[in-house]
Amino acid sequence: MTGTVGPGRLELAEVRRFPNGGVRVADATGSTLHWDVLGLYREVLAGLGDAGAVAGIGIDSWAVDYGLLDADGRLLGNPVHYRDSRTDGVAGRVQRGLPARELFAVTGLQELPFNTLYQLVAEGERLAAAETMLLIPDLLGYWLTGRVGAERTNASTTQLYDVRARTWAHDLAERAGIPTRLLPALRDPGDRVGTLVPDLARELGKPELPVVAVGSHDTASAVVAVPAEPSTNFAYVSSGTWSLVGLELDEPELGEAALAANFTNETGVDGKIRFLRNVMGLWVLTETLRTWAVRGEPADLATVLAEAADAPALAAVVDLDAPEFLPPGDMPARVAAVCRKTGQRPPESRGALVRCIVDSLALAYRRAVRQASEVTGRPVDVVHVVGGGARNELLCRLTADACGVPVLAGPVEAAALGNVLVQARALGADLPDLAAMRRLIRETQPLRRYEPRGGNWAAAEERLSGAGVVA
Ligand code: LRH
């Protein structure tokens, strides 16, 4: 994406779009799900070529995953996808020496099986050959500039970052058996990463082009672009492959209730805290579409969403946060199995299945918004939905109904907008703080409002656990 920023002006243009996904390859463990990180980098270079004259480059991506470099700065193996099963059982093993309570007290992070800490432990002997760990945006930035570093918002998702001290948690790393040499110096959104290495600068004809650190965790950039009025009590849903549901805080919330509700305290741009929980998100829907396509019965997203809108409401609901929805696979079968387990009739048509997923997603948003509010004691008067999910009318409408407050949907390209705004500020634009950036979003981006209409959400919530089902 290229962005243009000026007084009263904020525009994005899509320059190049390419698919990204796991690549499963056989090995002695059976198989491993990797990312094609060199393919991604090739597309980044092609995109930079297509972009024409720009003032800077900022990179954001999904969190937690990384590449390992050897002492010569060469990539050691192909980065592994966080949905790979190599981390199965690792968290439990680590927590025998490092109790979950202690991990949370230092890092403020929610327990997810794929936190970088657990992935690094799963590397085992391979870590001996590694000199540096670079999270995906830092790895791409390293290839562009030759400079290593760890951008702070993404570092905060590793479970190796001390959220109060704002440093790497070296002590925790050592106790987990992770060499601290792997953790490079931290950098902040707005810092200059470097300029293009000479070969690239020549090839692309961009000699002094800076790479600027942004909120390199996509969710951090997306939250920058939440168009909240400064005076409102807002929750946000950054709705894409994952749905990240929560509040923006000034200080981490590290109490018992936050731990019990499995909320995270990720670091945001300008030192904010993203107090949120990962909800499984539109992943379950896209995997459903993929399953149908693989079977030779492809479905069009708009068509199945229209069928879902006409299907009966809350006929069946599932807990999308259940671990069985994390790995790639046959989601229709998994949804049906959970319905049976919880005493509900599995959806019988495509429209009903998609309705079940979207209802369940709205229900998960309701639960996370309520818990965030209860744990922090802060009311929520409006829910901002940003990211791809903001263009899903059914989801936004049901989210307003489930949460019982208005939903403001948009912008769709929140992460790209947050990325561009932070870069623009670093390069001299008059955007002193988050409030100024959000004002510019409100002034320039189309937003849509959904009023809550009610519904039997509390009763549906009880069906999630299958309480009262006789086996
Ligand atoms: C969303 C996201 C999320 C992480 C997950 C791995 O893209 O970055 O915030 O938890 O991917």
From TrEMBL:
Domain of life here? Bacteria
Domain Carbohydrate kinase FGGY C-terminal residues, every copy: 235-426
> Which Gene Ontology terms cover its molecular function?
transferase activity
What are the residue boundaries of the Carbohydrate kinase FGGY N-terminal domain, all occurrences included?
Answer: 53-224
Q: Does the keyword ATP-binding apply?
A: yes
Give yes or no: UniProt keyword Ribonucleoprotein.
no
- Name the Enzyme Commission number(s) assigned to this protein: 2.7.1.-
Signal peptide region: none
Tell me the Pfam families matching this sequence.
FGGY_C, FGGY_N
Assigned keywords, A-Z: ATP-binding, Carbohydrate metabolism, Kinase, Nucleotide-binding, Rhamnose metabolism, Transferase, Xylose metabolism
Enumerate the InterPro entries for this protein.
ATPase_NBD, FGGY_C, FGGY_Carb_Kinase, FGGY_N, Rhamnulokinase
Which principal EC class is assigned to this enzyme?
Answer: transferase
- What family does the entry list? Belongs to the FGGY kinase family.
Q: What name has this protein been given in UniProt?
A: Rhamnulokinase family protein
Source species: Amycolatopsis rhabdoformis
Taxon lineage? Bacteria, Bacillati, Actinomycetota, Actinomycetes, Pseudonocardiales
